[in-house]
C-alpha cells in the first residue's frame, strides 16, 4: 500500500501429518486464512514453497493445480458458498464436475454424501429453504464427496448457533477418526483444543505457538 509493505505471512513454516487434525487459531488479520488458501492451492506465495506429498505446488501447471484442488483438496467456508438457484443435491454435484465423474456417478455419490449427513429429505431443497446448520452440512457434503486427502475448513462454525456448531464440530471429528486429514481455521481456541491434535496460534503473520493438545475426543 504505497510505500508500506503488508506481509500477510512472514517466515511461516509447518508440516501437517497424514491423518492429523490441525487447528490454526488467531484474531482477524493474523494471517490464518491466507495460510489456509496457500495450502489449498487457491493462492500462490511470493516466496517459499508449499509441498503436498513431496511435490511443490509452485512447479504445477495450471491444469495440475486445478487437478490438485479437484482431487486432493476439500474446502469448507464460513459463508457456505452454496449456489442459490441449485438444489442441495446439485450443489454437492458441483464438486465432481471437474474430475471426470459421469453424471450418473455424480448423482449417486452426492446422494450418498447427503444421506450420510442426515439430509436425505433435503435433496431437492434450495439453500434459502434450509437452516444454517443444514446449509453447512450441504457444504461439508460437497467438500467430502470427492473423497479428498485433506480437508481445509475456514471458520466452519462461525455463522452457526451453539447446537449446530456442535453438530458440525462432531461431524469433523468423526471424519478425522475415519482417516481424513483436517486443517481448521478458527477464532475459538477452546474448540481447537478440544477437537484437534495440535493447535497453531498466529499473530501478525507469524506462528507464535505450536502446541500438541490433550484432546478429550472419544
Total strand segments: 8
Strand order of the largest sheet: 4-5-6-1-7-8
How far apart the termini lie comes to 48 Å
What is the H/E string?
Answer: EHEEHEHHHEHEHEE
What gyration radius follows from the Cα positions, in whole Å?
17 Å
Total helices: the number is 7
- State mean pLDDT (0 to 100 scale): 92
Strand fraction band?
15-25%
Structural class: alpha/beta
Task: Give a quick account of the main beta sheet: strands, pairing sense, barrel closure.
Answer: 6 strands, mixed
Please bin the fraction of helical residues: 25-40%
Please mark out the parts with pLDDT under 50 across 5 or more consecutive residues, or reply none. Answer: none
Oligomeric form of this entry?
A: single chain
Shape, please? globular
Task: Describe the protein in words.
The protein is of the alpha/beta class. The protein is built from seven helices and eight strands, in the order βαββαβαααβαβαββ. A hairpin with a 2-residue loop joins β2 and β3 (55-56). α4 crosses α5 and α5 runs parallel beside α6 (162-177). The longest helix is centred in the C-terminal third of the chain and has 16 residues, at 162-177. The mean pLDDT is 92.
